[in-house]
Every structure is written in C-alpha cells, then in structure tokens.
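User: Predict the complex with FE2/S2 (inorganic) cluster.
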Amino acid sequence: MSEREIISVTVQRGGPEAPQYPQVFEVPAFESQTVLDVVSWIQQNADPTLTYRFACRVGMCGSCAMMVNGVPRWTCRTHVNKVLKGGKIEIGPLRNLPVIKDLAADMDPFFDKWVAAEGRHHPTLSRDDAIAEIDPEQPARVEASLGIECINCSICYSACDTVAGDSDYLGPAALQRAWTLYNDGKDADKDAILDAVSGKGGCHSCHSMGSCTAYCPNGLDPLSAIAGLKRATTQRFFRGRAK
Amino acid sequence: MTPFHLYMAQRLSALVMAPFVLVHLGVMIYAIQGGLTAAEILGRTQGSAFWFLFYGMFVVAVSIHAALGLRVILSEWAGLRGTALNALSCAIGFGLLVLGARAVWAVTAGGVS
Ligand code: SF4
Ligand code: SF4
Ligand code: FES
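Assistant: Here is the predicted structure with FE2/S2 (inorganic) cluster placed in the model:
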C-alpha cells in the first residue's frame, strides 16, 4: 500500500486567555474527508486540547462553522479536496465573533441580535383556539417559507462586512428571521418587527453587497429578505402604521 | 432622527437628484455644442427664478445625500460614533450647502459672489 498523502493544516489556536497563534499539523489524507474530519483527527490524534464545536455532522445543527482558507464554511459538509490549496488548508474561528478558545467562537452576540430583531413569535391565538389553517401557496407564506431552513450557523454573519464595520448591526440571519415572521400569517405584531429592524444597526444599515447570500451553505437569501424589510418599512412610512 | 429617517432622507434626496443630474448634463452638452461663452450663459441664468430653484434644490439634495453617505463611511471605516459622528456629518452637509449656495447665487442672482 502506498503511503498516505499528508495535508498541512494551519489551525488558529488561543483565545482571550492565551495569545492567538497559528499552529501547523500534518494530517493524513483520507477519501471523502471533510474539514471537520481533519479537525477531529487533530484533536483525537495530535492534540487533545484543541477546542472546537460540532454536533450533527450532517449540516443540520449549524454548530461547526469555521473560517476555512479565510472563508466561512460549514466544516462538516465541506470536503477537503474542494478547499485544498497546494496540499494546505488554513482553519480559524468564525470572523466577526469573539473567540472562546481555538476554533470555538462565542455565538452570544449572534443570538442576542435575533432577539433584538424581534425574531420571536407574537401569537395571534391562544392554546384554547382552534388551529388556523394556512394556505401554503399564499404569497406571504411562500415568502416566509424561503427563510425557514436557516440553521443558525452564523456563516452569513461572519461573511458580512457591515457587521465587521458596525458592531451594532443586527446582521443577515436575524434580519432574515424578522422578515420571515413579518410574512407569517400566525404572527400578530408586524409593527413591533418593523420597529425592531428600523433602529440603530437595523436593516437600513445593509449595503446590499450580498456576501450573506453568496456564503449561506443552505442557499438562503438574506440579502433579499433584508430588501423586503426595507420595502416594508418604506411602505409603512408612506401609508402609515397598520390600524 | 432615527436611522430609518436618515435612510429615507438619503433615498428621497437621491430621487430628487436623479432628474436634476440628467437635465444638468443635458444643459452642459447643449451649452458646449452651441459654443456659448461664460458671459452668454450668465446672461441667461442671472435673474432666472427657474435656474435659481433648479440649482438651489439640486444643491440642497446634494448636501443631504453626500453628508449622509459620508456619515456611513465615517462610522464604518473611521469608527466614529455618537456626537462626533453627528457633528462631523452636519458640518460636511452644511459646508457643502454653503459652497453650493454661493455658486448658485453667483450664477443666478445679480453676480454677487
Ligand atoms: S447584503 Fe447586507 S446583510 Fe448581506 S452581507 Fe451585505 S451588508 Fe451584510
Ligand atoms: S442564513 Fe444561512 S448562513 Fe445565515 S445563519 Fe442561516 S443558514 Fe447560516
Ligand atoms: S456539525 Fe451540525 S452543521 Fe456541521
């Protein structure tokens, strides 16, 4: 059997408690190997202190996102041979978020902004009412359905240069969530949503450059969702608030 | 002024500017084709309420639009926040307004500069 090829992997180590530095590992190549497999191999065979995060390994949970060669990616669904450059890969923690340690980024700002964008349900009915029927073909529902496959991976948030320049900016995922709820027939407080996305760091800060849409691993389109919010807030400005 | 109002002010000033830019460019090309001298041009613009309003509104829209655009750059690239950001953006807008108003006055009023 021929010797395995070796991949040279540069991993960003450290965090707030130790200065950050790049560390190079030699990792044997396997067939159909993902970037997450490479990170796991390092943790299991070379350095058990390497910190990283994952759960489902099938692109469902959104916890394994990292910077791979400077680009945010879901590592469990990224094949090494797609990103290998001259036998090398660079892996780092997600951009635009504080680092906890090594490859684990602190997701708190990302999720806090979901709440700040009013990304929560405002019920129209109580548990005592009958369940309202929703027509899946209805245009607003079709629009809402476009955003529901978000796995909260924060890849769009890391890709967004407006987040990098403005720490108050709510970011693509939270705003897309707000737009989804705005179009949801079972959400009762559209005005609260539009208010939440009209303040400091709201949807009007977006520069529409579309890195979010370009990098979302699930093929979602936060750019268009944010454009929808801009339209809705502008229409409300001219037409007045609902009732 | 909320961020939303600033956004609306920038979009609306852009809406106002768009036809002005086209007319302005058209007039420039026309004036050059005909070989008009500066004196001939001034002869047509001075005392004209139309050109005073045209370029007056143009200057107001430009001042608002440019100041708001630079405000975002100052915030995202230079990290300015709060009062410093607002004061500098207002100063830029006001400066553009003064410069533009002087030019409009010189071209459409009696030639005072
Ligand atoms: S389109 Fe907007 S949200 Fe998306 S990356 Fe650009 S600035 Fe960020
Ligand atoms: S919109 Fe896409 S990139 Fe952003 S958090 Fe959701 S799944 Fe991830
Ligand atoms: S580990 Fe769950 S999405 Fe990658």
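The longest helix of chain A spans residues 222-239.
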